[in-house]
Every structure is written in structure tokens, then in C-alpha cells.
Specification:
With about 270 residues, the protein is mainly alpha-helical. Helix 2 runs parallel beside helix 7, helix 3 packs parallel to helix 8 and helix 3 runs antiparallel to helix 12. It has one domain. The radius of gyration is 20 Å and the shape is globular. The two termini are about 35 Å apart. Helices cover about 80% and strands about 0% of the residues.
């Protein structure tokens, strides 16, 4: 029964992707302008990468090639966040306010899945994936280390954990819309938290690193995959990276179910 449900949701998700692509390609000018706008924004972010890389030297004990791995990983995870989650998350409060959630509740599919995974943005992730992959390949090849299957699988594992943690950690503030309706402040906090991952956590003070690993584990998302590659991730952190992803997802799921049980429709 469980496997049937998984296959059903995977089939539905394929339809979500198909409909999202058709919807975005329907207006070609908007697609092209959105793509070019994201390229310009990404280029502005890459300028400081070139400056840091050309300057050489170490930053908090990290070489310029290791920094490329960190920034490339952040860029890839940004594509995951804006492509799969952001628009869905930020639309939750509108759906509650306008009563759209009332229609979704009666559908024979997981409500959380339907609300948080329904739209896939294919425009913004393209330049981010391209640039992030290039930075990772250049940094990884120049380091000349961590190319065995163990390091590669560790990197993939913690990237997957980062994706799960991104979904869970940034969904939680949006669930508060069931009680507050408006979550503009939560969206701003979410954006600022995400930007903390723009550089390696080692540039921050020790107490801030602990907060970003254990209290609000945003640093786990893009730091742990690279730290696994450069052999800077202890076994304790490896266990925590997997465990916190599972625990945060379970917490988000529990909070969602609590909110749905207390939800009384748009009409009160």
C-alpha cells in the first residue's frame, strides 16, 4: 500500500512538472526575460567570486579552490530552493486567505504534497545550475582530492540531506500562516537565513556556527557536502547532518498536521 502511494505521488509530481513547463513556455517573452534577469543577478554574485579567486590566499583556513566548492554548492542549492520550493511556500498564506486551500483539501492526494510541490520553476534554476556545476567541477578538479567513490557518495548524500532540510526548515515559517495569515516577516527572515550560506560557515564566529548547525541548522545545507569532500567533517557531524534532516522534516510534518486539524476554512 505504501509503495502504491509513493508511485501515485511520483506520477502526480511528473504531471506537476509537465504543467509547470507548459505554463512557463506559454509566454515566451516572460520566459526569456526571467532567464536573462536571473543571469544578470547571478553574474553580479559571481563578480566577488572572481575577485576572491584571483586574490588567492586563504580565508579562514580555506583555499580559493575550496571556496569555489562552497560557493558552487550554495548556487546549486539555491536552484533547488527557488526551483522547487520558494513559489509554493510563499503562496501558502494567499491560499489560506483566499480560500483556495478549501478546494485542495478534498483532493485525493496528500495536502502537504499538493500545496508545497505543485509548481516547479524551470527559469531561475537553469543559470544557477550551470554556474554552480562549473564552480564545483573547477574547484574539485583543481583540488585533486576526494575523487573516489566514497567522497562522491558522501557529497551526494549530504546534498540530498540539504534538500530535505531546505524543504523542512523553510516550510516551517510558512505554516505559521494558518494562525497569523500574513507571513511577510517570515519570508524576510527566510531570505536572510538563506543568504548566510553564501559563504562558508568558518568565516563566522564559533557561537554563530553552533547556532547555524544545531539551533537553526541552515549551515548544514551547503557546508556539510563540501566539508565531507575536503575531509573536514567529523563522524559526529556526519551523523548529525543526517539526523537533523530527518528530525526537521518530522517536525515540519507534525506542525503541518497540527495546523490542518485547527484549520476551519476561509469562512471561519
Amino acid at each position: 500500500m505504501q509503495s502504491l502511494e509513493i508511485r501515485k505521488h511520483l506520477k502526480i509530481y511528473r504531471q506537476f512538472i509537465k504543467m509547470s513547463v507548459m505554463q512557463q513556455l506559454e509566454y515566451r517573452v516572460n520566459f526569456i526575460m526571467g532567464f536573462l534577469g536571473e543571469c544578470v543577478y547571478l553574474f553580479s554574485k559571481m563578480l566577488y567570486v572572481m575577485i576572491v579567486y584571483r586574490a588567492g590566499g586563504n580565508i579562514s583556513g580555506l583555499s580559493s579552490d575550496q571556496l569555489l566548492l562552497f560557493i558552487g554548492t550554495f548556487t546549486i542549492m539555491t536552484a533547488v530552493f527557488v526551483g522547487l520550493f520558494a513559489d509554493n511556500f510563499f503562496g501558502i498564506s494567499r491560499q489560506i486567505l483566499k480560500g483556495e486551500l478549501d478546494v485542495f483539501i478534498v483532493k485525493p492526494v496528500s495536502l502537504q504534497f499538493f500545496v508545497t510541490m505543485r509548481f516547479v520553476d524551470i527559469v531561475k534554476p537553469i543559470p544557477n545550475i550551470a554556474a554552480g556545476t562549473a564552480l564545483i567541477v573547477i574547484g574539485w578538479s583543481r583540488l585533486g582530492a576526494g575523487t573516489d567513490i566514497t567522497h562522491i557518495l558522501s557529497y551526494i548524500l549530504f546534498m540530498l540531506c540539504g534538500a530535505v532540510l531546505t524543504y523542512s526548515l523553510f516550510l516551517i515559517p510558512q505554516i505559521l500562516a494558518f494562525w497569523t495569515i500574513k507571513t511577510g516577516g517570515g519570508n524576510d527572515i527566510t531570505s536572510r537565513l538563506w543568504d548566510f550560506n553564501n559563504m562558508p560557515m568558518k568565516i563566522y564566529h564559533k557561537w554563530m556556527q553552533r547556532i547555524g548547525i544545531f539551533a537553526v541548522p541552515v549551515f548544514v545545507i551547503t557546508n556539510f557536502p563540501v566539508m565531507a569532500v575536503i575531509n573536514d567533517l567529523s563522524m559526529y557531524y556526519r551523523i548529525w547532518g543526517v539526523a537533523v534532516s530527518v528530525l526537521t522534516f518530522a517536525g515540519a510534518r507534525l506542525l503541518w498536521n497540527t495546523a490542518i486539524r485547527q484549520y476551519s476554512s476561509a469562512g471561519g
